Amino acid sequence: MTSSELAREAALPHRLKQHAKRILGPWGVFFEGFLKHPVMVGSIIPSSRFTIAKMLAPVRWDECRLFVEYGPGVGTFCRPVLDRLRRDGQLIVIDTNPLFIDYLKSTITDSRFIPVLGSAADVEAIVRAHGHDHADYVLSGLPFSTLPDGIGPAIAAATHRVLRPGGAFLVYQFTAAARDFMARHFRHIDQDYEPLNILPCRLYWGWKETAGDV
């Protein structure tokens, strides 16, 4: 076999992967991201429209100037959030996976949208770096049960600190692990269940107490 034939054979898996990504679109990108970082991605399939609608239902959009999302993946929640967000609001999304961040930068051109490559544990610094003192709502689909040791508690604590009084931490999960992390900081946690999702998931809304609640 000649060197050129060897080169073509070596490049075949890459060409097949690119072809599959073109056919599958965002689903292909999402699946590739899961394969590369399975511990940091909660599912191989994006959330259903039922999960999205129920998760976002309690948000008071007229009061929301900054919405933050952890682990946006291919933007399953990003577009519904932007559709609801006020014109002078901002959506900051944070992900450790450059594949997802690059995809979002290339597909969402809304001026209110800010994708950040980084850790959710650094949300306070990220929010300040973009000119805000706090967030109104923070959404997360990160798999708390499989995050590296110490990361889940750090994210929950940082999220509580960055939220304004009356704001909320919105979490969707397949297990109850996230609630345990949330309960250390949020005294009021609403919960629900969405069966029309693959897999069915638990929904949590942790509300940061207002001055009158303390």
Quaternary state reads single chain
Q: Which residue ranges are poorly predicted, with pLDDT under 50 across at least 5 consecutive positions?
A: 3-12, 16-21
The CATH topology is given as: Rossmann fold
Characterize the largest beta sheet: strand count, sense, and whether it forms a barrel.
7 strands, mixed
Strand order of the largest sheet: 3-2-1-4-5-7-6
Beta-strand proportion: 15-25%
Give the CATH H-level superfamily: Vaccinia Virus protein VP39
> What is the typical, i.e. mean, pLDDT?
85
Number of strands: 7
Report the top-level CATH class: Alpha Beta
Structural class by SSE content: alpha/beta
- Name the helicity range: 25-40%
Helix-strand topology string: HHHEHEHEHEHEHEE
What is the domain tally?
A: 1
Describe what you observe in this structure.
This protein has helices at 3-24, 26-36, 49-56, 78-84, 98-107, 123-129, 151-162, 177-183, and strands spanning 66-70, 90-95, 113-117, 135-140, 163-173, 188-194, 201-207. The chain is α/β, with parallel strands linked by helices and 214 residues long. It has a seven-stranded mixed sheet, sandwiched between helices. Helix 7 links the parallel strand 4 and strand 5 (163-173). The radius of gyration is 19 Å and the shape is globular. The relative contact order is 0.14.
